[in-house]
Amino acid sequence: MIISVASGKGGTGKTLVTTNLAASIGEVELVDCDVEEPNSYLFFPNREGETSSDCTVKIPVIDEDKCTRCGRCSEFCAYNALAVFPQDVLLFKELCHGCGGCVLICPEGAISEGTRPIGKIFRAGSGDVRLLWGELNVGEPMATPLIRSVKAEATGDLVLIDSPPGTACPVIEAVRGSDFCLLVTEPTPFGLYDLSIAVQVVREMEIPCGVVVNRSGMGDRGVYDYCEREEIPILLEIPMKREIAEFYSRGVLFSQEMTEWQERFAGLIARIEEAIR
Ligand code: SF4
Ligand code: SF4
Q1: Is residue 10 scored above 80 in pLDDT?
Q2: Confidence (pTM)
Q3: Measured by CB atoms within 10 angstroms of the end CB, which terminus of the chain is less buried, N or C?
Q4: Would you state the CATH architecture of domain 56-117?
């Protein structure tokens, strides 16, 4: 079962939920797909066997001696990643999506496939939890190939995906293929607005979803009324408590200190199984 944890925006408690859930259920793979700012692994300081490898994407390599500057590759590229000048051909690497089309279209066989690194994939273990995370190179605009590669490494029976914030392409790539999506929100008008957009996205992708209300007890009833109206189950509420925030700010999993929460997080999995049955 693949469960993704998402939220319409950052700072709602997505990582708080994912990490505490992973630590409470054990025998799970936690995949941090927030590749611009991965931080789930920091909550597991006793990591062991950490390894890493480069994540690369394909790029065209042009043989200037064979190239006749015919311009076919530039005309073909839908991403405007190639520009042909009388003297040479320029590749804008950041725009290239590595589709390989220019390699096939070149009449002179002047283009071959090379690779360029866009980030790193990390792996480690912490007790029963296997940690996987991606780290995008600074200035690299394309997160989705790295997200895809990190997800591909998760092959266990239970996979938890910590998605990037927002509702743009990286989130869609992270959530794609999930059996269930947990949407973390806070009970405020801002939380409601972002939640409603996230719900539209996962419904469009035909992924069943449920809500975790973080910092419950603050704000208003808008999120609760919305969930009732839209028939979205609220599966867990985490109250607005100073000690929970303090544990989080110190990089400590609050469920390990306030142990009654381990059962509550474990119960969340049972409720998800019930919801998708
Ligand atoms: S299609 Fe091939 S020959 Fe034509 S400009 Fe591009 S690389 Fe050169
Ligand atoms: S591989 Fe695809 S995206 Fe990249 S330059 Fe060639 S045609 Fe454009």
Answers
A1: no
A2: 0.89
A3: C
A4: 2-Layer Sandwich (3.30)
